[in-house]
Structure formats: C-alpha cells, structure tokens
Backbone:
DNA sequence: GTAATACTGAGAACAGCGATCGCAGTATTG
DNA sequence: CAATACTGCGATCGCTGTTCTCAGTATTAC
C-alpha cells in the first residue's frame, strides 16, 4: 500500500547512476524567485524559468515533477529569510509577535507569496520556523492541537496585514482603486447613506492608523486571548 | 482624461441598437457558479461556461470583457445569499459577529470563493452588504477610515476560518495531508523536538476546539479590541 | 574491458487556456 | 429603405503545463 511520495522533498533530487545534472533544484528555485520578485507569480512559467537557465522547458522536469513543486520550493526557500534568533524573553506573546512581524516582512519583500494557490506545503526550512514557534509556545498550557491551530491563525493574520499593507503601499496602481471609483459613483445617497458617508472622506486625510502598529496590537490581543483563556 | 470603465458594472449590459442578446450576464454568472460549485474555479473556463450555455467561447465576450469580470460577477452574486436582516440589538459587536458568521456560511457553501485571485471587486450586492456592516458600526466612535479597515479585517477572519473549517471537513483528501505525512517522517527528534511532540498526538483524538465557536470568540475579541480602544 | 543499466538534455508535440478578428445576420434608428 | 449598431460565432493566435521520444553519457556489474 506504499504510495509514491507526494511532496518535492520526498523525492530524491537526483539518481546515482547517470551523468551529473547540469543544474540543481536550488538554481531552479532561485531563478524562479527572481522572476517572481520581478514580475509576480505569472512570470514564473516553465518556459520563462527555462529561458533564465538557458535550457528548454522539458528539462526542468528532471528536477521537479510539476510546477507546484517549484512553488513549494520557492515558498520554503524564502522562509530562510526569517531570523529565528530572539532574546529568550520567556514571554510567548512577545516572542510570537516578534516572529510574526518578521514573517510579515518576508511577505512584503515577496508579495507573490500572497498569490500562491494554496497554503504552501511546509518544507525543511518551514519546519525550522514551525519548530521555533512551537518552542515559543512551550511555556503555555495550550493543548498540542490548539497550538497548531494557533499557528494557523497567526499565519493568517500575517497574510491579512501583509495584504493590506501592500495594498496601501501602491494604492495608485491598485486594482481596488477601480472598485473605489465605482463605489463612489454607484453608491446612492438614499440606499447607501453610510457607505457614501464613509467614502466621502478623502482617504489618507484622516490620520490613517499605522498598519504595522495595528498589526502588533492585533497579534498580541489575539494571542493573549488564545493563551490566557483555556 | 476620462478613462474607460474598469469594472463590469460600469459597462452597460447591452446596447440599444441590435438584436436582443440570447443570453444575459445573469445566465453566464449562474452557469459559472454552478460549474464552480461542482468542479472548483478551474472548471470555470470560457469554453466550459460556453458549453453549458450551448454556445461558443467567443460569444461570451459579448457579455463580459474578460474572465475576471465573470469572477467578479460570481462573487457579487453569491453575496446575495447573506441575510442582512437582524434584530437591531444595538450592540455593534453582536451584529457584526452575526453577519460575519453568515458570510462564513457562504464561503463554506462556495469554497471557490477562497481561491479567487484577488479580493473580488465589490459589486452592487456587495455594496448592500458593506452598507449593512457600516450601519452596524455606526454606534461606534471609530473614524471612517478605520471602519473600512475593520471591515477588511473582519473579512480576513472570515476567510481564515472558512479555510480551516473546509480543510478539516474533508481532511482525508486534503493536500495538506501530504505535508503532514512528510512532516512526520522528516521531523528529526533532536532537531525538531517540539514539532515531533506536536505531531505525535493523533489528530482529532484530543478534543479539537470547535472551529465555529473559536471563530465567534475570535471575532468578538478582535472587534471589541478595535472598537473599545480608540 | 566491455556490456548493461540508469540516468540527463531537449526538440517536438499535445491539449487546454484566455482572448481577438472578421464576417454573416438582424434589429433599431433616421 | 438605407444606414447604423449591434449579436453570434468559426477560425485562429499566443500562451500555458506537461509528455513523448530519443540521442548521449556516466556509473555499475561481470
């Protein structure tokens, strides 16, 4: 009943018999990441990656068995950018908030992470990150399963705030801007009084809450809520 | 400097001159939704939709100008499934929690909503939903811009929990299952002690927190946190 | 030392995708 | 009744991920 391996990391990078491969998963991955940083996820096509490496699309399938594999590799690779060292404060909330903040920075640096089809498969480096978070959660009295769910929630908050932060960053070329202009014209005074009121304020005039501050506040609040109440 | 309209709803459904269209945006939309409910977002291709309607792919472009338009229409259409009537409790937190819960149900009924490329453009029905939430937020002292951000946060929480709820629902055919089995084999005792410990518990054995309860708790906590502190 | 084996690289090709063009047909306008 | 502005849609373009196939090469076994 042994099934074939499902993740990239279950499959060996290369066999032992034939000629040495001219490239490596690492090279594919970094080329793909560079492409994604420049042109977003759509730029990461087999042909584009192959061109970057000076080879043909078919050759890539010697290293990975599907495009999804490549995306998994990319997601795991950038996880290494998260610095896992932190002063052992002993306060889980503080530690987790710090780690989450660093993770958010990675998302800001690689916005395509937000466009990944599904939550990416956890790879070796993601495992180290997971491990670090679980260590930070150790002083708590949370059940093991709840800890995993807490991590999921934390992750979700990170992506959530990363998304709004990115949206605000270049709100000029934002596709949401189209929605906004549509809303302004389509919201009728009598049918949508509150909406028209909310839209009437020129955005940014009113001191908009600093997103990162809000993020830290939210993370701490959620975490303390989760940790202190059983 | 007037630019051409950006959203579907800015474009007229049909002109006044020629023969009456044999189909309507409504028909396209419901056909697409049915396809998505059955086979997920990938099943919603121009060709498939066209086949459903007994026509050719090219014909669809008489009603919409891009596939994205269709997705926008779909997202807006299912918004109508959210019941906006609720006993005017006057308590913003309670009202919002109820509305968010109903929105989550819609996500559970149409899982493809979670796979939509970007946050969908708000359409007419989405506007009604927005309006309703803003009305619920009226008693608060939040600034107008903060209200919009609160809605974004609330939306994010909904998608977050909908995602985990769906994941748990059919955890058998879950792609994350592959990750799990990989994690179990790859987590080494000395390098990932906490991870191996967390994974050693058979999932579900320990009374897993009811997700919906956790959702309601989280929503209330976040909302009170946002509303009570300026 | 040679034959068998197991691998690598890559050109060609396939099915499916979103989208466009151009043309025949039709209802409305002036 | 002609001019106009629309609709339906077959053909087609360029793109995508992926597979087939086969020549070439390094390793292993005898």
Residues:
């Amino acid at each position: 009943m042994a099934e074939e391996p499902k993740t990239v990391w279950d499959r060996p990078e290369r066999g032992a018999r034939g000629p040495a491969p001219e490239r490596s998963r690492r090279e594919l991955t970094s080329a793909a990441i560079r492409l994604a940083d420049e042109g977003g996820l759509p730029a990461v096509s087999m042909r584009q990656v192959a061109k970057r490496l000076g080879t043909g699309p078919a050759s890539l399938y010697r290293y990975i068995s599907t495009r999804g594999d490549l995306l998994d590799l990319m997601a795991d690779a950038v996880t290494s950018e998260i610095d896992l060292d932190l002063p052992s404060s002993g306060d889980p909330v503080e530690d987790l908030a710090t780690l989450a903040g660093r993770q958010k920075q990675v998302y800001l640096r690689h916005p395509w992470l937000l466009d990944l089809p599904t939550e990416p498969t956890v790879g070796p480096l993601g495992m180290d990150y997971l491990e670090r978070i679980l260590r930070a959660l150790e002083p708590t009295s949370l059940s093991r399963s709840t800890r995993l769910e807490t991590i999921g929630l934390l992750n979700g908050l990170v992506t959530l705030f990363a998304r709004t932060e990115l949206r605000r960053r270049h709100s000029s070329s934002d596709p949401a801007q189209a929605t906004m202009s549509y809303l302004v014209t389509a919201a009728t005074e009598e049918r949508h009084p509150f909406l028209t009121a909310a839209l009437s304020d020129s955005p940014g005039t009113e001191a908009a809450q600093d997103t990162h501050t809000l993020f830290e506040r939210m993370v701490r609040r959620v975490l303390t809520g989760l940790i202190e109440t059983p």
About this structure: Residues 16-20, 45-47, 57-58, 61, 66-67 of chain B lie near DNA strand C (CB under 10 Å from a C1'). Residues 76 and 125 of chain B are 6 Å apart (CA to CA). Residues 8-79 of chain B form a domain with the Arc Repressor Mutant, subunit A fold (CATH 1.10.10.60).
